[in-house]
């Protein structure tokens, strides 16, 4: 959130962020923060995913409690396109707003190539899918670049580095490679933000983002869960509920 100064022709924009407030329950402080910035009318921006999560309603209550006027703009996707941003900027000027309240985007959309790859993967039988990943992971040289660049791999000592007891073979052999990538995919399930850095840095061009995004889609379908919408909420694979579907247990 920040105060914004802008000329009427949308050529120049200046954002000022005098303070950062972070922590549980801070959504209730949005209204008072906007007022301290000297704002009179707030331009509230979010996508439909965040609206459904309930965050927008909480922000609106905070703004009303602080006596702030606001206008709500939701004509954007989770990974906003340039024309969506331009339309938002025009609406900002049209409404006479002087403060923007927004949110971090959700998981970025798949590219057309990634959508094609994912569709091909989902059309495979379980046996064909296993063979596909087995072939991909055979190329892995276990450089661990994917782990080093990942913002969610932050353990001081990785489980896969331990040898007493040894959970995963540390040598770049087929069995160890399969174990490493399966363990990593399961650890990232429900946390991966889809930045695709793991795939970008892989020297062997293994489609790691495809695996992570497939896991994210499975979680959304099975548990109606998307990473990042509620930071304090535990992921479905790290929590237990007696009402969870158990049909997969044979």
Written description of the protein model:
By secondary structure, this protein is α/β, with parallel strands linked by helices. Helix content is 41%, strand content 9%. It has a five-stranded mixed beta sheet, sandwiched between helices. Helix 1 (30-36) crosses helix 3 and helix 6 (126-138) packs across helix 8 (174-188).
Provide a short characterization of the protein structure.
The protein has helices at residues 30-36, 48-53, 55-65, 82-95, 112-122, 126-138, 145-149, 174-188, 197-201, 208-223; strands spanning 2-6, 13-16, 41-45, 69-73, 99-101. The protein is α/β, with parallel strands linked by helices.
Topology:
Layout: E1 2-6, E2 13-16, H1 30-36, E3 41-45, H2 48-53, H3 55-65, E4 69-73, H4 82-95, E5 99-101, H5 112-122, H6 126-138, H7 145-149, H8 174-188, H9 197-201, H10 208-223
Structural class: alpha/beta
Q: How many domains in all?
A: 2
End-to-end distance, in Å?
50 Å
Our Rg estimate from Cα atoms comes to 22 Å
The biggest beta sheet reads: 5 strands, mixed
The amount of beta strand, in percent, is 5-15%
Task: Please tag this protein with its features.
single chain; 250 residues; 2 domains; elongated
């Amino acid at each position: 959130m920040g105060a914004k100064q802008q000329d009427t022709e949308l050529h120049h924009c200046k954002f000022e962020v005098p303070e950062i407030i972070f922590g549980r329950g801070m959504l209730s402080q949005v209204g008072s923060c906007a007022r301290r910035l000297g704002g009179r009318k707030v331009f509230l921006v979010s996508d439909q995913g965040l609206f459904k999560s309930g965050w927008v309603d909480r922000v609106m209550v905070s703004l009303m409690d602080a006596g702030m006027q606001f206008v709500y703009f939701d004509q954007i996707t989770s990974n906003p396109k340039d024309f969506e941003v331009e339309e938002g900027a025009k609406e900002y000027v049209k409404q006479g707003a002087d403060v923007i309240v927004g949110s971090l985007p959700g998981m970025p959309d798949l590219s057309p190539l990634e959508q094609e790859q994912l569709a091909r993967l989902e059309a495979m039988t379980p046996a064909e899918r296993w063979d596909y990943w087995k072939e991909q992971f055979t190329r892995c040289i276990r450089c661990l670049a994917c782990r080093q660049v990942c913002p969610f791999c932050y353990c001081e000592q990785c489980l896969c580095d331990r040898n007493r007891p040894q959970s995963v073979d540390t040598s770049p052999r087929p069995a160890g490679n399969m174990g490493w990538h399966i363990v990593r995919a399961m650890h990232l399930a429900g946390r991966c933000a889809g930045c695709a850095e793991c795939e970008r840095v892989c020297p062997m061009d293994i489609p790691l983002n495809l695996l992570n995004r497939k896991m994210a889609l499975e979680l959304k379908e099975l548990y109606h869960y998307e990473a990042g919408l509620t930071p304090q909420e535990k992921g479905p694979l790290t929590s237990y509920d007696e009402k969870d579907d158990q049909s997969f247990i044979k």
